[in-house]
Specification:
single chain, alpha/beta, Rossmann fold, globular, binds adenine, Nucleoside_phosphorylase_d, methionine biosynthesis, MTA_SAH_Nsdase, amino-acid biosynthesis, hydrolase
């Protein structure tokens, strides 16, 4: 791997990684700050895409076209869709799908993109296995789950909507960017992985305040990413 793109959702996380890089050059494209540099001798580009699928897809395509990255990793937070997945746990993606792609009126199942040969985009096996072993070593106290990530331009904070997602998709967590990054990666034949820390239960039952949680999430993801990048 020559160059890794990292799309981080949290400002602080991107800031910490940037502070650990050498020879950083910064370029703003499409209102997004791309930080290119070296991390333990590895070339990386760290960027915060902003929220939602459009931002995420644009950001990924820029990483492909302008930075020629060989793979992309997306980190951030997500809402849990399973009882056994707790706040502060981590979900690593097997694959990703858009839950708000709705052409049902046209005869397609929910989540299916008309006229595309696939709508579920598979994460890179080698990146996934590397993340699994790094998690086990550097954050053994954290619950780590591997499964489907679903994304939509919706913050899910309603029990009824959550139940719909649970019954329509066999997913582990929901967020707002991963499937767009996955689809863009697929279209460009680029390996990808989504790494998400659980910030809430997608139904307003989160027991930890967001600011309390954010600190833990950033600490864990930075720890995980540092070792992950070293070994890539
Ligand atoms: N990101 C973190 N929690 C989320 C939720 N409940 N819905 C969508 N995106 C999220």
């Amino acid at each position: 791997m020559k160059r890794l793109g990292i799309i981080g959702a949290m400002d602080e996380e991107v800031h910490i990684l940037k502070g650990m890089m050498q020879d950083v050059s910064v370029e703003t494209i499409a209102s997004m700050e791309f930080n290119k540099g070296l991390f333990h001798g590895k070339e990386i580009v760290v960027v915060r895409s902003g929220i939602g699928k459009v931002n995420a897809a644009i950001c990924t395509q820029i990483l492909v076209d302008r930075y020629h990255v060989d793979a992309v990793v997306n980190t951030g937070v997500a809402g849990s869709l399973r009882n056994e997945i707790d706040i502060a746990d981590i979900v690593l993606s097997t694959d990703a799908q858009q839950h708000d792609m709705d052409a049902t009126g046209f005869g397609y199942d929910l989540g299916i993109i008309p006229r595309m040969e696939r709508s579920v985009f598979e994460a890179d096996r080698a990146l996934l296995e590397l993340a699994q072993s790094v998690c086990a070593e550097v954050i053994p106290e954290v619950g780590v789950h591997t499964g489907r990530v679903i994304s939509g331009d919706q913050f899910i904070s309603d029990g009824k909507k959550k139940e719909e997602l649970v019954s329509n998709f066999d997913a582990y967590c929901t967020e707002m960017e991963g499937a767009a990054i996955a689809q863009t990666a697929y279209l460009n034949n680029l390996p990808f992985l989504i790494i998400r820390a659980i910030s809430d239960k997608a139904d307003h039952s989160a027991e930890m305040t967001y600011s309390e949680f954010e600190e833990i999430a950033i600490k864990n993801t930075v720890k995980l990413l540092s070792e992950f990048i070293k070994r890539i």
